[in-house]
Amino acid sequence: xxxxxxxxxxxxxxxxxxxxxxxxxxxxxxxxxxxxxxxxxxxxxxxxxxxxxxxxxxxxxxxxxxxxxxxxxxxxxxx
Length: 79
What we know:
Blueprint: H1 6-15, H2 43-46, H3 49-53
Domain Aldehyde dehydrogenase: 1-61
Protein name: Aldehyde dehydrogenase domain-containing protein
Family: Belongs to the aldehyde dehydrogenase family.
């Protein structure tokens, strides 16, 4: 889409069913931006980082590998 009208740009990206919408300069690319198609052309999204993240859950595990009890840490029955 080539335009200087922000309303047309907004209408364009809201109505067009595409993973990438180009406005005014189709030869510039941003490698940090998400990339993927829609419907059957979405393979690059499903097989990429976003597809993997859809199946992941964040979990924090705090594991103390030192088995010695410390009296200052366990005052309720430690040494």
